[in-house]
User: What shape does this take?
Amino acid sequence: MKKRIIRFICVAALGIWMAGCSSNTGAQTDTEQTAAEDTQSISGSITMTGSTSMEKYASAMNEAFMMAYPDVTAEAQYTGSGAGIEAVAAGTVDIGNSSRALKEEEKQNGVVENIVAIDGIGIITDKQNTVTNLTTEDISKIYKGEVENWSELGGPDQAIVVIGREAGSGTRGAFEEIVAVEGQCQYAQEIDSTGAVMAKVASTPGAIGYVSLDVIDDTVNTLSINGVVPTTQTIQDGSYTLTRPFVMATKGEIAQQSLAVQAYFDFIYSEAGQAVIEQVGLTSAK
Assistant: This one.
């Protein structure tokens, strides 16, 4: 089912991209002909690694891009944001995917922060939990171990099981920075992928966790934060505060990369690429 959804997104995006290259009269302009020739002349491969939270985004974008540029292969591995940034800094991949902003020391190593989308971080619980809203202060107290039972927050008399991501995770770094709990979290378990956090929270009574909004399904409850429901609109208007950038980092500026990588970023920022971003549940960074 997941592959079918991604395929539908890619076909829709390709339709938008092709429409942009077509004249209403059926005749190609010089610009359109040049664009078509450029597409046909670009070949090679694009390698990327990094954030597990960006898997849905990267899979859909890569497939849409390869449909538009059939002579280019774009492949991604999902090893965590920290590993992605380290890999691009070392020159072992073309792009390092990070679900957090880059640190100053990373930028000083020549890594460039290319923000491609904005994602919300959702706070999730198991389906039996009756709590529907938390304040940012509530979340801080839960993760610091200052609140240990859901009854303290209007929920059932049940111990809170605090689930989080592993050290080096972009989601963890962004979450802890936004909630101001860096180095203070009292995790019951640290898990190394977005999907595994979802599964653990869904199967553990009393559990709470944080994941990228675009991967949440009906196996868990998604909480409002400070009375605000996480949606594309509340992320865009800033009323939902748990947001972070999706970054596709490069070693040096985009203009210094291979023609294939330059074409990849051009595609991301095109109408077709923006359609992919919207269809996978993210917000445009443009």
